[in-house]
Amino acid sequence: MTHQHRRRARIAFSDSAAKQLENLTSEAEIHSLDRALVVVSVNPDVGEPLPGNTTGPRLREYADEVEHVRLLYWVSALDTVVVVAFIEV
User: Fold this and answer.
1) CA 4 to CA 89: how far, in whole Å?
2) Burial category of 24 from C-beta neighbours within 10 Å (exposed 0-12, middle 13-18, buried 19 and up)
3) Is residue 1 scored above 50 in pLDDT?
4) Count of alpha carbons within 13 Å of 65, Cβ hemisphere only?
5) What is Dmax (Cα atoms) for the chain?
6) What are the E-state strand segments in the chain?
7) What is the percent of the chain where pLDDT is above 90?
8) Which is more confidently placed, 52 or 84?
9) Model confidence over 15-26: pLDDT tens digits?
10) 89 and 29 in contact (C-beta within 8 Å)?
11) Which of 66, 78, 81, 88 could serve as 70's disulfide partner, Cβ 3.0–4.6 Å?
12) How confident is the model at residue 67 (pLDDT cuts 50, 70, 90)?
């Protein structure tokens, strides 16, 4: 029996998300965000698609009610890069 291992997607941040990261100071917030980013990197389809047009990247929203984290992101064409556009912790 062979197991197919899907490679984790690489996480990248938009400029605005990178600025939001700079404002995180609490270890608990950073830990919660890390957990959410792992979930999205392992399964980029986990988030719900947001309504919008189909001309640009399709935004998705992942909300973890336990960790109190919300991410808005899009996934590259080959599911190799997840670009985080917005972070709420």
Assistant:
1) 33
2) middle
3) no
4) 0
5) 47
6) 10-13, 48-49, 60-64, 69-75, 81-88
7) 64
8) 84
9) 999 999 999 989
10) yes
11) 88
12) confident
Please state the φ and ψ torsions of residue 85, each to the nearest 5 degrees: -100, -25
Count of alpha carbons within 13 angstroms of residue 50, beta-carbon side: 15
Q: Among the listed ranges 51-55, 60-64, 73-77, which one has the minimum average pLDDT value?
A: 51-55
Could you tell me if 80 and 9 are in contact, meaning their C-beta atoms sit under 8 angstroms apart? yes
The values of phi and psi at residue 77, to 5°, are -60, -35
Q: How far apart are CA 73 and CA 63, in angstroms?
A: 11
Tokens of 31: 């830990």
